[in-house]
Amino acid sequence: PPLHRQRHQFVIDFVKRNKPKKVVDLGCSECSLLQKLKFHREIELLVGVDIDGANIKKKMHGLAPMSTDYLQPSYDQLRIELYQGSVTQEDARLRGFDLVTSIELIEHLTLADVERFSEVVFGYMTPVAVIVSTPNSEFNPLFPRPAGFRHSDHKFEWTRAEFKSWALKVCLEYGYEVEFTGVGQAPRGQQERVGFCSQIGVFRWLGGRQHCNMLFGDDAEDVFSYTLLYSINY
Ligand code: SAM
Q1: How far is the C-alpha of 7 from the C-alpha of 2, rounded, in Å?
Q2: Given the CA of residue 113, which atom of ligand 1 is nearest to it?
Q3: Which of 47, 170, 183, 232 lies 20 to 30 Å from 58, alpha-carbon distance?
Q4: 3-state secondary structure of 38
Q5: Residue 162 CA to chain centroid, in angstroms?
Q6: Selection from 216, 135, 138, 140 nearest residue 182 by Cα
Q7: What is the tally of structural domains in the chain?
Q8: Predicted confidence (pLDDT) per residue in 122-137, tens digit
Q9: Rounded distance, CA 8 to CA 67, Å?
Q10: Which ipTM was obtained for this model?
């Protein structure tokens, strides 16, 4: 299957195993991952965020229940919300989720904004788990095209070592652990050398940090910086 489908399937397999109740997809674009996740009954709140509101609006009405959905008894507890907003900004409605996904998003940010992303996602939203995917630049020489980034809007593409160094720093700073994997296999015999086409970090909150409790304390001012574009209850 095409790579974008493999990335989404990776998230779906994670959801099947871990059964998160509250899931947010950052950089949800035209909501294609959300469209697949809405069929997973354990999810009670499904949220999408993208800086590009026009992109969200293109297909958001496809998230509305179809008449047949109401025949499925356990659908009565799903709520979907879509926001226009930037992952570099905090919004109190995004705190305390079970899973945050960031699929092919960070490479569209400047490195300064990646720092903000880390603070917002791991330091402020403090979800139980985070899945981050980004291109692995070591794989690029296998593409039959000139050298350069895979997409003109990419601000960087990281090697496995660069991704790992960012991820481990995030873990130390915010109290997470991370496992590295990916999707998109290299041809036989080259996997070790170049790694996966898309590299993926699966982060899990270690818990017990004082920092986290402080953020949820009453003294913290709630910030609402995102604009709600769409919401629906099943
Ligand atoms: N995640 C989608 C998927 O898996 O099919 C597509 C990701 S697309 C390559 C990158 C998306 O990130 C775009 O929709 C873009 O608008 C969004 N984006 C870029 N910068 C952002 C930011 N600061 N905050 C939120 N979304 C952002």
Answers
A1: 9
A2: 23
A3: 183
A4: coil
A5: 19
A6: 135
A7: 1
A8: 999 999 999 999 999 9
A9: 25
A10: 0.99
